[in-house]
Automatic annotation (TrEMBL):
Role: NDH-1 shuttles electrons from NADH, via FMN and iron-sulfur (Fe-S) centers, to quinones in the respiratory chain. The immediate electron acceptor for the enzyme in this species is believed to be ubiquinone. Couples the redox reaction to proton translocation (for every two electrons transferred, four hydrogen ions are translocated across the cytoplasmic membrane), and thus conserves the redox energy in a proton gradient. This subunit may bind ubiquinone.
Ranges for region Disordered: 413-454
Organism whose genome encodes this protein: Streptomonospora halophila
The protein, known as: NADH-quinone oxidoreductase subunit H
Keyword Lipid biosynthesis (UniProt): no
Membrane topology note: Multi-pass membrane protein
Gene: nuoH_1
Length: 454
Protein backbone atom coordinates (compact mmCIF):
# COMPACT_ATOMS: atom_id res chain seq x y z
CA UNK A 1 0.00 0.00 0.00
CA UNK A 2 1.38 3.40 -0.96
CA UNK A 3 1.76 6.18 1.54
CA UNK A 4 -0.34 9.31 1.41
CA UNK A 5 2.54 11.37 0.05
CA UNK A 6 3.25 8.85 -2.70
CA UNK A 7 -0.42 8.67 -3.59
CA UNK A 8 -0.62 12.46 -3.80
CA UNK A 9 2.45 12.60 -6.06
CA UNK A 10 1.08 9.99 -8.47
CA UNK A 11 -2.46 11.33 -8.62
CA UNK A 12 -2.28 13.78 -11.56
CA UNK A 13 -1.42 10.93 -13.99
CA UNK A 14 -4.04 8.66 -12.38
CA UNK A 15 -6.65 11.42 -12.60
CA UNK A 16 -6.01 11.83 -16.31
CA UNK A 17 -6.39 8.09 -16.78
CA UNK A 18 -9.70 8.18 -14.89
CA UNK A 19 -11.00 11.06 -17.02
CA UNK A 20 -10.48 8.93 -20.12
CA UNK A 21 -13.32 6.70 -18.92
CA UNK A 22 -15.82 9.55 -19.42
CA UNK A 23 -17.26 10.79 -22.69
CA UNK A 24 -17.20 7.39 -24.40
CA UNK A 25 -20.53 6.00 -23.17
CA UNK A 26 -23.40 5.45 -25.64
CA UNK A 27 -26.03 8.15 -25.54
CA UNK A 28 -28.61 5.85 -23.99
CA UNK A 29 -26.29 4.97 -21.09
CA UNK A 30 -25.80 8.70 -20.42
CA UNK A 31 -29.57 9.20 -20.59
CA UNK A 32 -30.16 6.37 -18.10
CA UNK A 33 -27.61 7.86 -15.70
CA UNK A 34 -29.20 11.32 -15.91
CA UNK A 35 -32.68 9.87 -15.38
CA UNK A 36 -31.52 7.80 -12.40
CA UNK A 37 -29.92 10.90 -10.81
CA UNK A 38 -33.13 12.92 -11.29
CA UNK A 39 -35.34 10.18 -9.83
CA UNK A 40 -32.91 9.62 -6.95
CA UNK A 41 -32.95 13.33 -6.06
CA UNK A 42 -36.74 13.54 -6.18
CA UNK A 43 -37.17 10.42 -4.05
CA UNK A 44 -34.56 11.74 -1.60
CA UNK A 45 -36.54 14.99 -1.28
CA UNK A 46 -39.77 13.11 -0.48
CA UNK A 47 -38.07 10.76 1.96
CA UNK A 48 -36.09 13.55 3.60
CA UNK A 49 -39.20 15.63 4.23
CA UNK A 50 -40.87 12.61 5.77
CA UNK A 51 -37.81 11.74 7.85
CA UNK A 52 -37.53 15.37 8.93
CA UNK A 53 -41.04 15.32 10.34
CA UNK A 54 -41.00 11.81 11.77
CA UNK A 55 -37.59 11.96 13.45
CA UNK A 56 -38.20 15.43 14.89
CA UNK A 57 -41.58 14.19 16.11
CA UNK A 58 -39.87 11.41 18.05
CA UNK A 59 -37.27 13.82 19.40
CA UNK A 60 -40.11 16.06 20.64
CA UNK A 61 -42.18 13.13 22.00
CA UNK A 62 -44.95 13.28 19.41
CA UNK A 63 -45.96 11.22 16.41
CA UNK A 64 -45.59 13.25 13.24
CA UNK A 65 -47.44 12.25 10.02
CA UNK A 66 -49.12 8.87 10.50
CA UNK A 67 -52.43 9.02 8.60
CA UNK A 68 -51.83 8.98 4.85
CA UNK A 69 -50.35 5.73 3.61
CA UNK A 70 -48.63 3.03 5.68
CA UNK A 71 -46.94 4.72 8.64
CA UNK A 72 -47.71 8.07 6.99
CA UNK A 73 -45.15 7.51 4.22
CA UNK A 74 -47.36 9.12 1.53
CA UNK A 75 -47.79 12.39 3.42
CA UNK A 76 -44.92 14.14 1.60
CA UNK A 77 -46.31 13.10 -1.78
CA UNK A 78 -49.76 14.38 -0.82
CA UNK A 79 -48.30 17.71 0.31
CA UNK A 80 -46.48 18.08 -3.01
CA UNK A 81 -49.66 17.37 -4.98
CA UNK A 82 -51.61 19.81 -2.80
CA UNK A 83 -49.08 22.61 -3.37
CA UNK A 84 -49.05 21.98 -7.12
CA UNK A 85 -52.84 22.19 -7.35
CA UNK A 86 -53.18 25.41 -5.38
CA UNK A 87 -54.20 28.57 -7.21
CA UNK A 88 -51.11 30.35 -8.52
CA UNK A 89 -51.34 34.02 -7.53
CA UNK A 90 -48.85 36.70 -8.55
CA UNK A 91 -48.93 39.83 -6.35
CA UNK A 92 -49.57 43.15 -8.00
CA UNK A 93 -46.53 45.29 -8.70
CA UNK A 94 -43.90 42.53 -8.80
CA UNK A 95 -41.34 42.14 -11.56
CA UNK A 96 -43.11 39.22 -13.26
CA UNK A 97 -40.16 37.93 -15.29
CA UNK A 98 -37.72 37.84 -12.39
CA UNK A 99 -40.44 36.72 -9.97
CA UNK A 100 -41.21 33.65 -12.09
CA UNK A 101 -37.57 32.87 -12.99
CA UNK A 102 -36.21 33.06 -9.42
CA UNK A 103 -37.48 29.62 -8.22
CA UNK A 104 -36.05 27.97 -11.35
CA UNK A 105 -32.67 29.66 -10.85
CA UNK A 106 -32.61 28.37 -7.26
CA UNK A 107 -33.51 24.76 -8.16
CA UNK A 108 -31.60 23.98 -11.38
CA UNK A 109 -27.99 24.43 -10.10
CA UNK A 110 -28.63 21.95 -7.29
CA UNK A 111 -29.41 19.24 -9.86
CA UNK A 112 -26.35 20.13 -11.96
CA UNK A 113 -23.93 19.80 -9.02
CA UNK A 114 -24.90 16.16 -8.47
CA UNK A 115 -23.73 15.22 -11.98
CA UNK A 116 -20.05 15.14 -10.88
CA UNK A 117 -20.60 13.05 -7.73
CA UNK A 118 -19.07 9.53 -8.03
CA UNK A 119 -21.34 6.85 -6.57
CA UNK A 120 -19.17 3.87 -7.50
CA UNK A 121 -16.28 2.64 -9.65
CA UNK A 122 -16.57 1.21 -13.15
CA UNK A 123 -19.26 -1.46 -13.46
CA UNK A 124 -20.93 -3.36 -16.26
CA UNK A 125 -24.30 -1.82 -17.12
CA UNK A 126 -26.29 -3.59 -19.85
CA UNK A 127 -23.07 -4.99 -21.27
CA UNK A 128 -21.26 -1.63 -21.25
CA UNK A 129 -18.31 -0.88 -18.97
CA UNK A 130 -19.06 2.52 -17.41
CA UNK A 131 -18.32 4.37 -14.15
CA UNK A 132 -21.18 5.03 -11.71
CA UNK A 133 -20.89 8.77 -12.31
CA UNK A 134 -22.56 10.94 -14.91
CA UNK A 135 -19.43 12.90 -15.77
CA UNK A 136 -16.16 14.18 -14.36
CA UNK A 137 -14.07 17.23 -15.19
CA UNK A 138 -10.53 18.43 -14.48
CA UNK A 139 -12.16 21.11 -12.30
CA UNK A 140 -15.20 19.15 -11.08
CA UNK A 141 -14.69 20.31 -7.50
CA UNK A 142 -14.99 23.92 -8.63
CA UNK A 143 -18.25 23.07 -10.41
CA UNK A 144 -19.74 22.21 -7.02
CA UNK A 145 -18.72 25.59 -5.61
CA UNK A 146 -19.94 27.42 -8.71
CA UNK A 147 -23.40 25.83 -8.63
CA UNK A 148 -23.73 26.59 -4.93
CA UNK A 149 -22.89 30.24 -5.62
CA UNK A 150 -25.30 30.49 -8.56
CA UNK A 151 -28.17 28.97 -6.60
CA UNK A 152 -28.29 31.89 -4.17
CA UNK A 153 -29.11 34.23 -7.05
CA UNK A 154 -32.56 32.67 -7.16
CA UNK A 155 -33.11 33.49 -3.49
CA UNK A 156 -31.83 37.06 -3.84
CA UNK A 157 -33.80 37.75 -7.02
CA UNK A 158 -36.93 36.20 -5.53
CA UNK A 159 -36.72 38.50 -2.53
CA UNK A 160 -36.04 41.56 -4.71
CA UNK A 161 -38.73 40.84 -7.31
CA UNK A 162 -41.43 40.32 -4.65
CA UNK A 163 -41.42 44.06 -3.80
CA UNK A 164 -41.95 43.17 -0.15
CA UNK A 165 -39.77 44.42 2.73
CA UNK A 166 -39.79 41.02 4.43
CA UNK A 167 -38.81 39.18 1.24
CA UNK A 168 -36.12 41.75 0.42
CA UNK A 169 -34.57 41.45 3.88
CA UNK A 170 -34.60 37.67 3.54
CA UNK A 171 -32.83 37.89 0.19
CA UNK A 172 -30.19 40.24 1.58
CA UNK A 173 -29.62 37.94 4.53
CA UNK A 174 -29.22 34.98 2.20
CA UNK A 175 -26.65 36.79 0.07
CA UNK A 176 -24.56 37.91 3.06
CA UNK A 177 -24.80 34.45 4.61
CA UNK A 178 -23.71 32.65 1.44
CA UNK A 179 -20.77 35.02 0.89
CA UNK A 180 -19.39 34.45 4.38
CA UNK A 181 -19.98 30.70 4.49
CA UNK A 182 -18.98 30.10 0.86
CA UNK A 183 -15.51 31.42 1.67
CA UNK A 184 -15.12 29.05 4.62
CA UNK A 185 -16.46 26.16 2.54
CA UNK A 186 -14.02 26.85 -0.28
CA UNK A 187 -11.13 27.04 2.17
CA UNK A 188 -12.09 23.67 3.64
CA UNK A 189 -11.69 22.20 0.13
CA UNK A 190 -8.19 23.67 -0.28
CA UNK A 191 -6.70 21.21 2.20
CA UNK A 192 -8.41 18.37 0.30
CA UNK A 193 -6.92 19.58 -2.99
CA UNK A 194 -3.43 19.75 -1.46
CA UNK A 195 -3.62 16.17 -0.18
CA UNK A 196 -5.30 14.66 -3.25
CA UNK A 197 -3.33 16.56 -5.90
CA UNK A 198 -6.35 16.83 -8.20
CA UNK A 199 -9.67 18.66 -8.65
CA UNK A 200 -11.50 15.69 -10.15
CA UNK A 201 -14.05 14.15 -7.81
CA UNK A 202 -13.15 10.59 -8.82
CA UNK A 203 -9.46 11.35 -8.18
CA UNK A 204 -10.27 12.77 -4.75
CA UNK A 205 -12.09 9.55 -3.84
CA UNK A 206 -9.21 7.38 -5.04
CA UNK A 207 -6.74 9.49 -3.01
CA UNK A 208 -8.55 8.39 0.17
CA UNK A 209 -7.76 4.69 -0.22
CA UNK A 210 -4.91 4.88 2.36
CA UNK A 211 -6.92 7.00 4.84
CA UNK A 212 -10.06 9.11 4.72
CA UNK A 213 -9.57 12.87 4.69
CA UNK A 214 -12.07 13.24 7.54
CA UNK A 215 -9.40 11.77 9.82
CA UNK A 216 -6.23 13.55 8.67
CA UNK A 217 -8.09 16.80 7.84
CA UNK A 218 -10.52 16.80 10.76
CA UNK A 219 -10.73 20.63 11.20
CA UNK A 220 -11.62 21.04 7.52
CA UNK A 221 -14.28 18.36 7.84
CA UNK A 222 -15.86 19.91 10.94
CA UNK A 223 -15.88 23.38 9.41
CA UNK A 224 -17.42 22.00 6.23
CA UNK A 225 -20.25 20.47 8.26
CA UNK A 226 -21.02 23.91 9.74
CA UNK A 227 -20.81 25.65 6.36
CA UNK A 228 -22.96 23.09 4.56
CA UNK A 229 -25.76 23.69 7.07
CA UNK A 230 -25.35 27.45 6.58
CA UNK A 231 -25.33 27.06 2.79
CA UNK A 232 -28.67 25.25 2.80
CA UNK A 233 -30.38 27.77 5.14
CA UNK A 234 -31.25 25.06 7.64
CA UNK A 235 -31.66 25.48 11.37
CA UNK A 236 -29.86 26.91 13.26
CA UNK A 237 -28.85 29.07 10.25
CA UNK A 238 -32.23 29.64 8.55
CA UNK A 239 -32.06 33.42 9.03
CA UNK A 240 -33.10 34.01 5.39
CA UNK A 241 -36.53 32.58 6.25
CA UNK A 242 -36.71 33.58 9.95
CA UNK A 243 -40.45 33.17 10.60
CA UNK A 244 -40.20 35.04 13.88
CA UNK A 245 -39.13 38.32 12.32
CA UNK A 246 -39.51 37.99 8.51
CA UNK A 247 -42.83 36.07 8.22
CA UNK A 248 -41.41 33.71 5.58
CA UNK A 249 -38.33 35.54 4.38
CA UNK A 250 -37.62 35.49 0.67
CA UNK A 251 -40.57 33.08 0.11
CA UNK A 252 -43.17 35.33 1.76
CA UNK A 253 -44.91 36.31 -1.51
CA UNK A 254 -44.66 32.89 -3.18
CA UNK A 255 -47.24 30.14 -3.30
CA UNK A 256 -48.34 27.09 -5.26
CA UNK A 257 -45.78 25.64 -7.68
CA UNK A 258 -43.26 28.47 -7.24
CA UNK A 259 -43.14 27.87 -3.49
CA UNK A 260 -42.71 24.17 -4.25
CA UNK A 261 -39.68 24.97 -6.42
CA UNK A 262 -38.00 26.90 -3.59
CA UNK A 263 -38.78 24.08 -1.19
CA UNK A 264 -37.41 21.55 -3.68
CA UNK A 265 -34.23 23.61 -4.14
CA UNK A 266 -33.57 23.64 -0.40
CA UNK A 267 -33.84 19.88 -0.02
CA UNK A 268 -31.94 19.07 -3.24
CA UNK A 269 -29.16 21.35 -2.00
CA UNK A 270 -29.11 19.33 1.22
CA UNK A 271 -28.72 16.13 -0.79
CA UNK A 272 -25.93 17.68 -2.86
CA UNK A 273 -23.84 19.03 0.03
CA UNK A 274 -24.24 15.74 1.91
CA UNK A 275 -22.99 13.87 -1.18
CA UNK A 276 -20.07 16.31 -1.46
CA UNK A 277 -19.10 15.66 2.17
CA UNK A 278 -19.08 11.92 1.49
CA UNK A 279 -16.96 12.41 -1.64
CA UNK A 280 -14.41 14.85 -0.22
CA UNK A 281 -14.00 13.62 3.36
CA UNK A 282 -15.59 10.19 3.96
CA UNK A 283 -13.91 8.18 1.23
CA UNK A 284 -16.74 8.39 -1.29
CA UNK A 285 -17.78 4.90 -2.39
CA UNK A 286 -14.82 3.20 -0.67
CA UNK A 287 -15.66 0.67 2.03
CA UNK A 288 -14.71 1.44 5.65
CA UNK A 289 -11.11 0.34 6.33
CA UNK A 290 -12.02 -2.35 8.94
CA UNK A 291 -14.26 -4.03 6.35
CA UNK A 292 -11.54 -4.25 3.70
CA UNK A 293 -9.23 -6.09 6.12
CA UNK A 294 -11.26 -9.32 5.93
CA UNK A 295 -13.20 -8.79 2.67
CA UNK A 296 -11.00 -8.28 -0.38
CA UNK A 297 -13.93 -7.63 -2.74
CA UNK A 298 -15.61 -4.92 -0.67
CA UNK A 299 -14.62 -2.25 -3.22
CA UNK A 300 -15.49 -4.26 -6.33
CA UNK A 301 -18.64 -4.41 -8.41
CA UNK A 302 -21.80 -2.75 -7.16
CA UNK A 303 -20.92 -2.99 -3.44
CA UNK A 304 -19.28 0.48 -3.34
CA UNK A 305 -22.64 2.04 -4.21
CA UNK A 306 -24.03 0.55 -0.98
CA UNK A 307 -21.19 2.01 1.12
CA UNK A 308 -21.76 5.40 -0.50
CA UNK A 309 -25.48 5.23 0.26
CA UNK A 310 -24.91 4.38 3.93
CA UNK A 311 -22.49 7.29 4.39
CA UNK A 312 -24.91 9.56 2.56
CA UNK A 313 -27.82 8.60 4.83
CA UNK A 314 -25.65 9.27 7.88
CA UNK A 315 -24.92 12.81 6.69
CA UNK A 316 -28.59 13.41 5.87
CA UNK A 317 -29.55 12.30 9.39
CA UNK A 318 -27.09 14.88 10.71
CA UNK A 319 -29.25 17.65 9.21
CA UNK A 320 -32.29 16.43 11.13
CA UNK A 321 -30.36 15.90 14.35
CA UNK A 322 -28.94 19.44 14.29
CA UNK A 323 -32.32 20.96 13.46
CA UNK A 324 -34.00 19.24 16.39
CA UNK A 325 -31.18 19.96 18.85
CA UNK A 326 -29.75 23.44 18.24
CA UNK A 327 -31.88 26.61 18.54
CA UNK A 328 -31.76 29.36 15.94
CA UNK A 329 -28.97 31.88 16.51
CA UNK A 330 -29.15 35.64 16.04
CA UNK A 331 -28.05 37.19 12.76
CA UNK A 332 -25.08 38.99 14.31
CA UNK A 333 -23.94 35.68 15.83
CA UNK A 334 -24.23 34.08 12.40
CA UNK A 335 -21.99 36.72 10.81
CA UNK A 336 -19.49 36.64 13.68
CA UNK A 337 -19.20 32.85 13.41
CA UNK A 338 -18.52 33.04 9.69
CA UNK A 339 -16.11 35.98 9.54
CA UNK A 340 -14.44 35.94 12.97
CA UNK A 341 -14.18 32.21 13.66
CA UNK A 342 -14.49 29.94 10.63
CA UNK A 343 -12.48 31.93 8.09
CA UNK A 344 -9.52 32.79 10.41
CA UNK A 345 -9.35 29.21 11.68
CA UNK A 346 -9.37 27.91 8.12
CA UNK A 347 -6.57 30.26 7.06
CA UNK A 348 -4.35 29.14 9.94
CA UNK A 349 -5.19 25.49 9.34
CA UNK A 350 -4.44 25.65 5.60
CA UNK A 351 -1.10 27.32 6.31
CA UNK A 352 -0.18 24.50 8.68
CA UNK A 353 -1.32 21.82 6.19
CA UNK A 354 0.70 23.44 3.40
CA UNK A 355 3.81 23.57 5.61
CA UNK A 356 3.46 19.88 6.51
CA UNK A 357 2.92 18.93 2.87
CA UNK A 358 6.08 20.79 1.87
CA UNK A 359 8.07 18.90 4.51
CA UNK A 360 6.66 15.57 3.33
CA UNK A 361 7.31 16.32 -0.35
CA UNK A 362 10.89 17.39 0.43
CA UNK A 363 11.52 14.07 2.17
CA UNK A 364 11.83 15.41 5.72
CA UNK A 365 12.28 12.75 8.43
CA UNK A 366 9.14 11.48 10.08
CA UNK A 367 10.33 12.76 13.46
CA UNK A 368 10.61 16.32 12.14
CA UNK A 369 7.14 16.19 10.64
CA UNK A 370 5.72 14.75 13.89
CA UNK A 371 7.46 17.49 15.91
CA UNK A 372 6.02 20.19 13.66
CA UNK A 373 2.51 18.73 13.94
CA UNK A 374 2.83 18.42 17.73
CA UNK A 375 4.10 22.00 18.02
CA UNK A 376 1.25 23.31 15.92
CA UNK A 377 -1.27 21.33 17.99
CA UNK A 378 0.22 22.67 21.24
CA UNK A 379 0.16 26.25 19.94
CA UNK A 380 -3.43 25.81 18.85
CA UNK A 381 -4.49 24.46 22.24
CA UNK A 382 -2.68 27.31 24.02
CA UNK A 383 -4.37 29.86 21.79
CA UNK A 384 -7.81 28.32 22.36
CA UNK A 385 -7.29 28.31 26.13
CA UNK A 386 -6.18 31.95 26.11
CA UNK A 387 -9.10 32.90 23.88
CA UNK A 388 -11.58 31.08 26.13
CA UNK A 389 -10.22 32.85 29.21
CA UNK A 390 -10.39 36.24 27.49
CA UNK A 391 -13.96 35.52 26.38
CA UNK A 392 -14.88 34.52 29.94
CA UNK A 393 -13.42 37.75 31.32
CA UNK A 394 -15.27 39.74 28.69
CA UNK A 395 -18.56 38.06 29.54
CA UNK A 396 -18.04 38.72 33.25
CA UNK A 397 -17.29 42.39 32.55
CA UNK A 398 -20.42 42.70 30.41
CA UNK A 399 -22.51 41.01 33.12
CA UNK A 400 -21.11 43.38 35.76
CA UNK A 401 -21.88 46.35 33.52
CA UNK A 402 -25.46 45.16 33.05
CA UNK A 403 -25.90 44.69 36.80
CA UNK A 404 -24.62 48.22 37.38
CA UNK A 405 -27.05 49.61 34.82
CA UNK A 406 -29.94 47.77 36.48
CA UNK A 407 -28.92 49.15 39.86
CA UNK A 408 -28.83 52.71 38.50
CA UNK A 409 -32.21 52.24 36.86
CA UNK A 410 -33.74 51.07 40.13
CA UNK A 411 -32.30 54.05 42.01
CA UNK A 412 -33.05 56.64 39.33
CA UNK A 413 -36.09 55.95 37.07
CA UNK A 414 -34.87 58.64 34.64
CA UNK A 415 -31.49 56.91 34.12
CA UNK A 416 -30.60 56.58 30.48
CA UNK A 417 -32.88 59.38 29.34
CA UNK A 418 -36.17 57.51 29.78
CA UNK A 419 -39.00 60.11 29.82
CA UNK A 420 -40.35 59.62 33.34
CA UNK A 421 -42.31 62.57 34.77
CA UNK A 422 -41.02 63.99 38.07
CA UNK A 423 -42.99 63.23 41.26
CA UNK A 424 -44.35 66.81 41.50
CA UNK A 425 -45.73 66.89 37.95
CA UNK A 426 -49.50 67.29 37.51
CA UNK A 427 -51.34 64.00 37.21
CA UNK A 428 -54.30 64.30 34.89
CA UNK A 429 -57.47 62.58 36.09
CA UNK A 430 -56.05 61.55 39.46
CA UNK A 431 -57.94 62.12 42.71
CA UNK A 432 -54.69 62.32 44.67
CA UNK A 433 -53.70 65.97 45.11
CA UNK A 434 -50.20 66.87 43.96
CA UNK A 435 -48.02 69.74 44.98
CA UNK A 436 -48.01 72.74 42.71
CA UNK A 437 -50.46 73.57 39.92
CA UNK A 438 -52.39 70.78 38.28
CA UNK A 439 -55.10 70.46 35.67
CA UNK A 440 -58.70 69.54 36.38
CA UNK A 441 -60.70 67.23 34.13
CA UNK A 442 -61.65 68.63 30.73
CA UNK A 443 -64.53 71.10 30.89
CA UNK A 444 -67.59 70.72 28.66
CA UNK A 445 -66.45 73.65 26.50
CA UNK A 446 -63.18 71.72 25.73
CA UNK A 447 -61.10 74.11 27.79
CA UNK A 448 -58.93 73.31 30.74
CA UNK A 449 -59.13 75.29 33.95
CA UNK A 450 -56.02 75.76 35.97
CA UNK A 451 -56.60 74.96 39.60
CA UNK A 452 -54.34 75.85 42.43
CA UNK A 453 -53.34 72.88 44.53
CA UNK A 454 -53.97 72.68 48.24
Amino acid sequence: MTTTAQAGAALPVAAEAQLDAFGTDPWWITLIKALVIFVFLMVCVLMMIMADRKVMGRMQQRHGPNRLGPLGLLQSLADGVKLSLKEDLIPRGVDRTVYIAAPVIAAVPAFIAFSVIPIGPEVTMFGVQTPLQLTDLPIAALVVLATAAVGVYGIVLGGWASQSPYALLGGLRASAQVISYEIAMGLSFVAVFMYSGTLTTSGIVEAQRPVWFALILLPSFLIYIVTMIGETNRLPFDLAEGEGELVGGFMTEYGSMKFTMFFLAEYVNMVTVAAVSVTFFLGGYLAPPPLTMFWAGANDGWWPALWWLLKFLLMMFLFIWVRGSVPRIRYDQLMQLGWKVLIPVQLVWITAVAFVRILVNEGAPTGVVAAVVAGFAAATVAFLVAWARAARRRRRAEAAERREELRLMREDPAYGGFPVPPPSAPHYGSSVPAEGPRYAPRAPDDKREEVTGA
